[in-house]
Amino acid sequence: MSTDCLFCRIAKGEIPAQVVYRTPTAIAIRDINPQAPVHLLVIPLEHVETLNDTADAEFLGSLLVAAREVARRERLDLKGYRVVVNNGVEAGQTVPHLHLHVLGGRAMRWPPG
Ligand code: AMP
Ligand code: ZN
Questions:
Q1: pTM, to two decimals
Q2: Which of 42, 68, 82, 92 is the most exposed place for a label (fewest CB within 10 A)?
């Protein structure tokens, strides 16, 4: 846990967020600045900065399982959805705490910007 990390503080309940799903190791919240009709963030409770910082398959797998579950709950599985992980500066990562974006509810373009 990092005391000055936004997502650590949200995970601890110190900063309010719309939590839509919880597992023993992660939460899913609504993004404050949604880029699609449904835009959720799957956030591990453990502070890991980027994908570069862990190769723990069980940990990483559990985040994907949480992403598929929130997508199913939001009924995004029927039409499709996108799961995105921004890693580092060139990818546009703004919060240095690993998280999965789950985006859906509209047609997506490819390639992403
Ligand atoms: P990234 O740019 O991949 O690091 O994604 C960070 C995401 O966190 C952005 O989509 C922001 O809109 C979102 N975000 C920032 N602050 C908050 C907050 N307090 N509650 C919910 N989402 C947030
Ligand atoms: Zn953190």
A1: 0.98
A2: 92
- Which of the listed residues 15, 18, 31 should we mutate to test ligand 1's pocket, taking the one with most ligand atoms within 8 A of CB? 31
**Is 54 within the bounds of a domain?**
yes
- The alpha carbon of 43 and the centre of ligand 2 are apart by a number of angstroms equal to 9
Q: State the amino acid at position 45 in one-letter form.
A: L
Which member of 39, 97, 99, 101 is catalytic?
99
Residues of the chain with confidence (pLDDT) below 50: none
Q: Which domain holds residue 18?
A: 6-104
